[in-house]
Design goal:
Length: about 140
């Protein structure tokens, strides 16, 4: 097996698993494929699977690891001005640079860019604490 075959296989497995899980109410939260370049080739694939618990209005999965991490840690989080973040910030929409973003959660192990947003086109985007978009998550913003 070479690297190209590994990438193709990973993509095919990902597509099949997504369809299979969606039919049962689950989704892949994270996946990681590692290619082994020794003479035997091969790859190691790890998946994190979560139950889908989508918010009806925003479409954010409240069961995702990032959403659960925010729910557990929001009381310790602040924006760049020191203002505390709101408990109900998950799913909050805000506009920055002409794009609409919906807050999807917090990544506790990502020290540089821990705040996860979903752009209006579905792209997942991360921002640092110092970014002005994080101020939209404070308790007085709505």
């Amino acid at each position: 097996m070479n690297l190209t075959e590994c990438k193709d296989l990973n993509r095919a497995i990902g597509n099949e698993i997504r369809d299979l899980l969606a039919a049962r109410g689950y989704e892949v939260a994270r996946s990681n494929a590692r290619y082994d370049a020794d003479e035997n080739g091969g790859m190691k694939l790890s998946l994190e699977i979560v139950k889908v618990n989508r918010d009806d209005t925003t479409g954010i999965n409240l069961g995702s690891p990032e959403a659960l991490a925010y729910t557990r840690n929001y009381m310790y989080l602040t924006d760049h001005n020191g203002a505390p973040l709101a408990a109900d910030a998950i799913g909050r929409e805000t506009t920055w640079a002409g794009e609409t973003y919906t807050f999807a959660g917090f990544r506790p192990r990502a020290s540089k860019r821990p705040y996860l947003f979903v752009r209006s086109d579905g792209q997942r985007v991360v921002f640092p604490e110092q970014h002005p978009i994080v101020s939209a998550l404070t308790g007085d913003a709505a």
